[in-house]
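[job 4417] fold queue: 2 targets
>>> target A
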Amino acid sequence: MRLAASSSVLAAGLAGCAAESQPPIDLEAERLWAHEHCALANPAPYPPTGTYMSNHVGRENSNAIPCAGPRAFDLEWHVLETHASAQPNTFSPDGKTTYLTTTPGDDGCNAFAVDTATGEVVWKRCDLPFGTLASTIDVDEDGDLFLTAGNTARALDPATGADRWVTELPNTSASGATYGLKFTIDGHLVTQVSDGTVYLVRRTDGKLLAELSVADETGFVPAEPTALSTDMTPAYVLARLRLLVGDKHYDEAIAGLGGLLGASGGFADNTVCTTARRQVLTVGGGPDKFTGAAVALDIVGTADAPGLKFRWAAPLPAGSASSVVASSDGERAVLGDGDGHIHMIDVPACDANTDADPEPDRCAPAWVFQHPGGRLLGTVALDGDGTVYAFTAGPERVEEIYALRDRGDTYDLKWSSDFGPIAQMTTVLTVTDDAIYGVLSQVDPLVTAGVLTLPKSVSNEAVVIDKETGVILHRESTPDSSLTELVLSPRGELFLTALGLYEILTLDPAGRDPVGGLRKYAARE
């Protein structure tokens, strides 16, 4: 069902407004300027000169940007306090505007456009469902915006944030979230809702082009949800959560927190991946409630009349927070499982059923890295030379970051880094030509309170790490742990959204409240 956006709803739901009309942009000058700093040749419909237009960098979720970012930086501004983000921000093709989704915060609004030079809000949306928090605002080569909001896919006007179209995505699940969308190689949108149905949506008008229920096709079921007993959680912890989400969305936030700490009970577990091989790779439910799976679907038919067809599944321990990541040619795919181990998949071998599993609808990994302890809390990075960068967290961890060079049917450990007994990365890693960016947190020894394992104290730094050695090159104090990414913009600047999960959970009645917001770091001259 397609929902029309009425003028009365837009008038009530949109707060803030577009800036006054600006002179035409000299696109060629902007391209040349961006190329001097950080330009990425993303295939259309991703902007050719942009970097973080979408969650995890482009359709493959690679987290790798083939350019050089700053080796040191300073905080330039911090805006939107009380608004926490679960996904990274994105940018207009010229890098002058950044977009983000957040918790409702102190004004009840949860989607924003912000001027990257000044930090001023260009527009904001205050009418979108709480589940918008799970989506990035994706940007195409024309600067048009797309996101998922609850059980809808939407196109937004970049100047005002108003809906251009809204399409309902039928969803039978009462649990989980829709984790944003991607552009396919044909230029359509693809997403997976929490009951496991994958939808192809036409970008121009929101028409549903194809759908496939992974659960119906495979018989797979979602992971056992992680239930949080708020009766056993300290009142001051719950008060910090209310500060960011408000009373209206408190119950939804509690359910979402369970998903972050384990499994949500929804079938879909993270952002989909699309590839040059005309495939869609998803992660989520599996053969039973303790076993998840990565699933490959083929996009069949023509670009004008596409369809979806199940190809194979790779079972793995459930509860992964890792999206599937693919190489630029779509021939390698990698992700972390619920035990924190890393699986590398030879996609052509699984497509042709020449992998180690004799069943044509099952895929065996080319290799598995079983690190000695800790959990993988987010998506890995895969750069152009086949190196996988992964971080681990939790009290059992041995190293904070592992760099693994893909060798086909095995891997080489390029390096691993230990940053101290209470240090752990709390963001996904952003990898450039010569550096890695993220947030490193010092989390004091963890203690148990009911069903939760909570920190006693936490402090955080935005860091630059040498890509070849794993040594920290620069540190900059930052208020909150993040769980998203320290993002490099098309103009060579760094931006950080924060969730503040560790600050919410700190077992100290006098502990600092999470701040939230968006921070900009400028290169140090």
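>>> target B
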Amino acid sequence: MSDRPVLWSVAGNDSGGGAGLSADARAAEGCAVHLCPVVASITAQNSLGVARVVPVAAEVLDAQLAALAADLRPSVIKTGLIGSAEGVAVLMRWLARFDAEGGPRVRLVVDPVLGASAGGAAFCDDALLAAYRTQILPRADLITPNRREAARLLGVADAATPAEVPAQAAALRALGAGAVAITGGDSADGAADRTDALDWIDTPLARGWLALPRLDARHTHGTGCTFATSAAAAMARGFVTADALVLAKMATTAAIAAGHAAGQGAGPVGFDAGFAGDARRLPRLGCDETPPGPVVVPPERWPGGLYAISDSFAQAMPLLAAAAEVAGLCALQLRIKRAAHRGLDDAAFAEALQAQIGQAQAAIAALPAERRPVLVINDHHALVLDAIEAGRLDAASIALHLGQEDMLALGAAGRARLAAAQARGLRLGLSSHSLWELARATALQPAYVACGPVWATTTKDMPWTPQGLHNLGWWARMAPVPVVGIGGVLDETQVEAVMAAGAADVCLVRALAAQPGDADPAAAQRERLARMAAACQRGREPSAALAAPLWPRASLDPAAEAGIVA
């Protein structure tokens, strides 16, 4: 048995060693998966172009797949240059067998190699193009065409501007593809001087432009193969498609940076096995069809320490009283849920919420200056933004925390209002549970990003598996802003571990709350706060620091995505 996930690549052999199975092998090794290179086509090519393409006979392709199926069943199959409709038919028969056998779905990643980027032989005739449309696309979990390949698959003209790319991705999904990534979609307008290299992704869980700074590089042969294989490798390692595409973007950018000369033309991309732990490679993900802006770190750094969450000002009062005597509380979030106030109409609820915010601000202002936590309001963005715009609330005196569903629901106009409030000093906190949510958060200029749940929690029903200290450490390593660890933190040992993993704050919901059995509630509250603050400080000691991992772990079961695709 292999100790690495098995990935089949059914693709072409590049005699020049740049693209095809050569690039696939480099990418797979860098992603720590076992690649089985299945030769579907033989090419005569070098760094200047492709002179000839010869598809292997269908029976030869079938024999390769039969040998592998008997011993090395794949988690994922990635295709590149197949070369013939007969080859597609062979592949689809094997996929049908795997589907009929049951067990984990063999996921299919398709890099539709339809023509050479440099001059040379044609790769795809009408029969093969029809096979892509009618056989491969309906079974593909992910397809990664460049913009020319996307247009040819659809039988339309190339996208003239980046604005046309999202519609083409949606059209490919309508033909059956589970997810689509159109690589180099930003080049549709010929803007070679664009600051960012952009790839459009459209998946069941996330869509938008993935952005990283464009590299000034000549040696880019094999870029598309590297992107598709890296995505397939990440899927083989258990990541859902949206997260796999974040990793593929990172891997491909690192591979371009590691390219080298070989021959007279463009040389091949290389591979950097440390790409997944390089914070420079974390992309930004847009919220809509607008490309994301650059990362902007707020000038006022988020304070580190204990971050408490209370359901009301009344619940927070004992904690604030304790904070007057015990240091360590850096933030207090009011998480006041509308559902808990069903007896109030909207106007009355808004008035009650404003009153609680005012009470909390007054209580915090009464604390010694060095012990005043940041007041954070959870979810109620409309009320907060309205109050800031009307002058009833000082933007710099408060922070707003949003989940990513709420951020997306704001729409472009709402996000513009939020950005204006941030420019006036409002600090924004964002939840994140996956790689794509972290990538999206980094583009929205947050003061901090929350990572969770660190451990299993009963305070919220979520589909995410616990991140553990492993992923929390990766978040802290990769995020450009402070990270708050949240979820399932109940005792001092956990507080210390969260801080040792690199978090700036540790979020406590129940661990600081008053307990019914407290004989002296005020004294008990001070004692709890003191214990947690001491644990927080111990976790900050250099000797307690945990090594930051190079790779994250998957935080969502791909079966959930498969259900959405189906």
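[job 4417] complete. Note on B: The two ends are 30 Å apart (CA to CA).
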